[in-house]
Design goal:
Layout: E1 2-4, E2 12-14, E3 22-27, E4 30-34, H1 40-51, E5 63-67, E6 70-76, E7 84-86, H2 87-95, H3 99-103, H4 108-123, H5 128-140, E8 152-155, E9 161-163, H6 197-207, H7 219-222, H8 235-248
Parallel strand pairs: 1-5
Antiparallel strand pairs: 2-3, 3-4, 4-6, 5-6, 7-8, 8-9
Length: 251
């Protein structure tokens, strides 16, 4: 595991998990994100490795490191230098209003239809296929944080808009659960269209024929070099969950 020293003045503070705020720094074309909770970094790395066994069109590859003696992830910047729009930012720029003020009284299906038509009108891009796969992947890795600032579109070399590589998995795989002993009663919250992944999956399945494909993988290989012997928090829970996923074979 690589170790990096970064001056505190180089960090920016971003809204993080329920356990705190994430510190990020961009150094030598790499993003370093310090774990905001007990195992946010480990969960992010494992989730990105699971992504490599799916048909997710593109995703950010995260790896473990230590920054200033704290657990962190490091990743390449897939957006810098390219024109991009977040769904949240695009809505604010075009309409002059935050997307939450417009959509807070809509049902999940109404909200999905609204954002789908909005992006199609403003960018000429049908996000339904890619977003359907993305939301199914979020359900697979139990990601709690797919807010509208984490849905991003980039302009490709052909001058067409498309979904950016998927990023930000540090609120996945139980990493924001305050008490791991109470997992049986955990509701697995979701964003941005429904309150739980179960509800969001039902919505996606009702409006799209696109399906996430998960290929078999070796759990031990997925978690290799993610935890060290002095820090095992969340490892047992993630391993058990991944084994259950493989045994079930579907969401």
């Amino acid at each position: 595991m690589i170790e990096v020293t970064i001056p505190e003045s180089d960090f920016v503070i971003l809204g993080g998990s329920s356990r705190g705020y994430a510190k990020k720094a961009f150094i030598n074309d790499r993003w370093y994100k310090v774990s905001a909770g007990a195992f946010n970094a480990q969960a992010e790395v494992v989730a990105s490795r699971v992504a490599s066994y799916t048909n997710l069109p593109g995703f950010v590859d995260y790896e473990m490191c230590r920054v200033n003696n704290e657990y962190a992830t490091v990743s390449r910047d897939y957006i810098r230098g390219r024109r991009y729009e977040t769904l949240k930012g695009l809505h604010a720029r075009v309409t002059g209003t935050p997307i939450e003020s417009v959509t807070q009284h809509l049902s999940g299906a109404e909200l999905f239809n609204y954002t789908h038509k909005f992006v199609l009108t403003e960018l000429g891009y049908d996000m339904l296929p890619a977003l359907s796969i993305l939301l199914q992947f979020d359900a697979l890795v139990l990601n709690e944080d797919r807010h509208f600032n984490n849905i991003v579109f980039i302009l490709n070399e052909a001058g067409k808009w498309e979904m950016s590589p998927v990023f930000d998995f540090d609120c996945a795989l139980y990493s924001c659960v305050e008490d791991l002993d109470r997992l049986p009663e955990y509701t697995c919250p979701a964003l941005p269209y429904c309150g739980t992944h179960k509800e969001q999956l039902e919505l996606v399945y009702s409006i799209s024929d696109e399906r996430l494909i998960l290929r078999p993988f070796d759990v031990e290989e997925i978690i290799k070099d993610v935890w060290d012997e002095t820090h095992q928090i969340g490892k047992r829970e993630i391993v058990n969950y991944l084994k259950e996923v493989l045994a079930d074979g579907a969401l």
